[in-house]
Prior knowledge:
The protein has a single domain, classed as MetI-like fold. 80% of the residues lie in helices and 0% in strands. It has twelve helices and no strands. It has helices at 2-31, 48-55, 57-89, 93-103, 105-108, 111-124, 131-154, 159-167, 172-201, 204-209, 217-225, 231-260.
Amino acid sequence: MMREKSGGWLLAASLGNLLFLYLPIAVLVVYSFNAAKLATTWQGFSLQWYAALARDHALMVALQNSVLIAGVSTVIAMVLGVSAAVGLERLPRRQRAWLDGALLLPLVIPEIMMGVALLLFFVLVKMPLGLLTVTIGHAAFNVPVVMVVVRARLRKLDPHLEEAARDLGATPWQAFRRVTLPLLMPAIVGAALLAVTVSLDDFVVTFFTAGPGATTLPLKVYSMIKTGISPEINALSAILVLVSMGLVGLSLLIQRKTVHG
């Protein structure tokens, strides 16, 4: 009887958490189809606000900027993150400890501090703010994200596989490319999807490092909210939320298959 009661409380708590997390998102998505001009008054189903997004030139420019920044910063983060993950796993434990702390620091410090630090750095080196500085900022906080995902997979690999390839005459690079890299590929793909998601959703670092002509979708949403919440903002926010959730879900699915595979 006690187990049944505790199980009921746990189920109720879980359902409460799900409602707390997803009910606001559900309301946002539903009201993005609102025919009324006021976001809080329901007047029927309509797709007009999604059509309005497609006709908004400034919004399309922000979308292009977000996709470009996410793509380039993810490529940079993948090259640096995968290299760092492989290199750290092959270092002695004592040397690895302090490097771990340094490379994972962007995940620990508040994002606003990282934004201010990047802004000060770009000012000191006299680099004009724009798409390049935003891309560098996104790559900086995505490198540790990639490292964490790839290293989790590396620790589950059998090191004797690469050693066997070396014994059969393969060079270190050949052993890595033909043995380790294929085994890491699902984790690499999952990390890339996660990095794209984080980049598309970022506001704080982008806010501090963006300049003229570097407006992204989160910055566009922020500028639109200043004039009041409209169904058009709901539509744009719903697209961002659904795309982000889809990418995160796909990333987790790929990583789960990696673990069980």
